[in-house]
């Protein structure tokens, strides 16, 4: 079996402008994730905002099976053309994994049809992610929960369409809950939203978080059927 | 419009055998709920375990639009025949609301196909029920959350089929989360599971809890289509 | 109870430019639907493409509980601004009913995140719409199926997100099937897509088709909960 | 990776009592399916009604990853004890594939909570199974539809809970439609219902039908998470 071709996209701003963030992710969140899932045998590339086409040319996307997305400060700087290109590729079957503050990215809003807004608080307290769908391949090897501290809080109502499958629900020390692992299908493409990790905390070094990301790469990259045909059709059956 | 005909079923054991529980619900949980939703204009009856047929004869069920169920100690004492009768009526369109420890009732297990098991702890701490589907009629008038203290903890994994609609998620002080408001359809019947309230706490006097119960009575009693026909059929179309 | 305020939007081009269509809908599809559901007690207005703001000013939308949408030839002529305005109102709780060729409207694509494309054929043959969710209020009074002839064919794959509730499946004489009645939730808004009727056929005079439209008006207009709040939040619970 | 351990269960009555059926499946439907999916690399066993424990002892089930079920005449002869044993194994993570008339088997009814009844007609006409979820691994290699003739008709309403994922919809020459490929999750177990094939027709020699069965074996056998724990729990978080 061919290795899954993963492109990890990161805005890559915090890590170059804020020394506190740089101390956590000196080479960028994309780099840390790439190293963290290296052991799973994927073929990994990275791409960032400032590259031409944000590093997401037709050529790159056409050879990408799974796109991982992290963004926060600069959602508005992502060009509509690239967003449209990504959307088209998802509908054709490319998997998409949206992480944390990517919930407000243009591509996630475009695919959801909603604001994807939520409550938040940077209080560096505890998050517990409980598995609520232990039958799902994304939960393999995770146990009953993931225990993270410190993490930022994200709270409901999370303005998304009801997930097709709800995998994780987060508990936050300050009293909130959140639908933290959500799957969707759009066209031939599978999508996974995963809530952790804030740029200021070492979440993407956490073994279970990395395991969820690796599991979800496999899941969004899993086989699909034939590309459908559209338009004016001859009668299928004649009597 | 005819008033919705509601039958509130209660095991009615705790309230007669445990003075502590009797002090909270002196006439039984069924009685408190009946009074609590009286203002909503339903036509309300009650039924209990020790009555003949547990108070749920064919005649009673056939004139019931919505059955509310509270049980805990004596799930095994409910006769298979009555469970089968209730199941048949749900499939024919009777609404069913299962409260709290009713999660382990025979009728809920029968309709779900799973154990409906969960984690629990009687620690009398705080529960926050967050609305995660504010578009749903069951959430009308509730606000963004319900704040209960004291309540018993119920924790995931809750062994149910994924709800068709997830309405509430609970946060518990001890670290757990729970899918606390879940809808299902079986045949023509609509089902709502609602997690609160423990027999030792005055949960069924709480205005918002009662509002959810009243809203869900209306929702599970809402209109449905024609009873389907089954079996050997003549060709519908001939060429 | 206040009557539901319905705005029926129609592109209104075919009926003015094509004598064949004009003979079926002399005053426009919007007018026929308005008359056809008049008996259900809604407060009905209409709006068309060529009016200022396509007849959908802020003022009109803010006093609309349910928007019904029929379009075909001129999806591209609907302004982005009006589409954004409608989307915002849906997320705030306005119901939306999209009919037939409205599947390719900007507003439906915007809310779905997909192309909403499909197969089609104008062969004026028979369509049978089977009820596959008889528990749903939208099916009240419909029986087990709706029998239409002539109708245009729409065939799978229909490029939409999996419906939250699938209500009707169509059978077409030429061999195709179609998910013909689909519900969605976006924000506080409920959405119903209903497949019939082609502009050249008298579908919107059909009693059962009108009944489905009326039922769905009530359903998408049904109560919802409180508008959620978003953004930076104070801790809810402090220990 | 270990091969998936598949047990194909067949009632095995028609093939021994009816020469017409015997001429189609001389060694039984189970044997034909076993041969038909041999090329996919599974480790396959068969079991039949008349064996002790119907061939489904604890030992057999505990070493089964996926159980395939075909039954028709003798649903009532399957012992409650064995049904309970299968249900327990599904909840623990064993995959289950229910074929055709298995819709009325005790195990399927037990897991669904409904009658699983439907319309039917043995008219040996054409069935077209349209893919309505081309993103799903079960549709890999199938194309846009499967074309079967002759097949028995199954028609809606099919009294099942709404499938978690709807994969195929059938068109029948006589005018009916049917939800022919449906997935469910119960506990850790994944379930797939697949409508074809009638015992009198050579459906289980059809390459695409066998491909769907093989794809679904892989899908219901896919990884899952940890077995949940239930019962009285210590506080997870203390303040």
Automatic annotation (TrEMBL), chains A, B, C, D:
Signal peptide: none annotated. Coiled coil: none annotated. Pfam families: ThuA. InterPro entries: Class_I_gatase-like, ThuA-like, Trehalose_catabolism_ThuA_prok. It comes from the Bacteria. Residues 5-220 form the ThuA-like domain. This is Trehalose utilization protein ThuA. The lineage of its organism: Bacteria, Bacillati, Bacillota, Bacilli, Bacillales.
